[in-house]
């Protein structure tokens, strides 16, 4: 069987490579070229070089969206991972009804982002109205915290599952030996459990970091970027630039923003992976 696989591996690999090239490589290269052009349709293209890239940083909405997204990403990544890990710790201590709680926490992740956005828009706006506070679309601050609540509610259960898998792989004998030596619960947590679940922390941090940075559908449905595009995140800003502004120049600028956005996500994700993997315990 292994000899057959080694002999015919190109046959199995070729369809995947072709699909990857058609579905990702070619569109990416074509998008990279379009970011250097001014166009209305792909049949009416004027090459302008790096002019689009110089214009995106002069767009105040893009720089504001970048800062808004960066702040949201930091806060949401910390919040989701801390709460997800805390819930995982509670549900690995033999609490009665653990499976039911796991299901309840995980269920929000099964609902689409657009649907969740509209549901939480109704809930949060109703609460803000009841308390006499500005609606989500009327105050950037409330839009930020509304997005954080929505993102946390959706993602905590998913991260919890990954952390539970990591915690269950920590040897009970190792914990018992530490307790016999006089280790406190705090020491067991930070000296044994956290280092042993670093692979899970790496995965969860990567997922929350990238998901937060490229958040789009929840942003669109919850705040729509209001007020005055102050709660726009980068993905929504790119969408608004490409489809919401008239003029051939905006298509190219929107495409240039998309390329910069892609590079930012890749660079940030690679830095995070390098930092967290360096702290993983080697088996």
Features:
two-stranded antiparallel ribbon; 283 residues; mainly alpha; 12 helices
Strand order of the largest sheet: 1-2
Mean pLDDT: 85
Which blocks of ≥5 consecutive residues have pLDDT under 50? none
Strand content: under 5%
> Any idea what the shape is?
globular
Overall structural class, as computed from helix and strand content, comes to mainly alpha
For the report, how would you describe the main beta sheet?
Answer: 2 strands, antiparallel
Number of helices: 12
Strand elements, count: 2
N/C terminus separation: 31 Å
Describe the fold and architecture.
The chain is 75% helix and 2% strand. The protein has 283 residues and is mostly helical. It has a two-stranded antiparallel ribbon with strand order 1-2. Helix 7 (172-180) packs antiparallel against helix 8 (185-196).
Can I get a quick summary?
This protein has helices spanning 2-34, 51-56, 60-91, 98-106, 113-130, 140-168, 172-180, 185-196, 198-213, 217-222, 234-244, 248-277, and strands spanning 37-39, 45-47. It has 283 residues and is mainly alpha-helical. Strands 1-2 form a two-stranded antiparallel sheet.
């Amino acid at each position: 069987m292994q000899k057959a696989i080694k002999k015919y591996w190109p046959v199995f690999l070729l369809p995947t490579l072709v699909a990857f090239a058609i579905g990702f490589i070619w569109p990416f290269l074509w998008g990279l070229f379009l970011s250097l052009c001014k166009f209305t349709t792909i049949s009416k293209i004027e090459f302008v070089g790096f002019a689009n890239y110089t214009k995106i940083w002069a767009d105040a909405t893009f720089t504001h969206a970048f800062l808004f997204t960066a702040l949201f990403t930091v806060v949401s990544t910390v919040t989701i991972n801390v709460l997800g890990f805390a819930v995982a710790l509670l549900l690995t201590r033999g609490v009665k009804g653990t499976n039911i709680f796991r299901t309840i926490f995980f269920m929000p992740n099964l609902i689409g982002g657009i649907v969740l956005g509209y549901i939480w828009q109704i809930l949060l706006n109703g609460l803000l109205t009841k308390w006499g506070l500005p609606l989500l679309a009327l105050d950037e601050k409330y839009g930020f915290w509304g997005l954080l609540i929505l993102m946390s509610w959706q993602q905590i259960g998913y991260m919890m599952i990954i952390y539970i898998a990591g915690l269950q792989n920590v040897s009970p004998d190792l914990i018992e030996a530490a307790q016999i030596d006089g280790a406190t619960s705090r020491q067991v947590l930070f000296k044994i459990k956290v280092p042993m679940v670093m692979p899970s922390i790496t995965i969860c941090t990567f997922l929350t970091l990238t998901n937060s940075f490229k958040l789009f559908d929840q942003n669109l449905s919850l705040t729509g970027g209001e007020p005055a595009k102050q709660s726009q995140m980068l993905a929504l800003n790119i969408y608004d630039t490409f489809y919401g502004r008239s003029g051939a120049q905006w298509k190219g600028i929107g495409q240039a923003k998309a390329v910069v956005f892609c590079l930012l996500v890749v660079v940030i994700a690679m830095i995070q992976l390098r930092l967290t993997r360096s702290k993983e315990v080697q088996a």
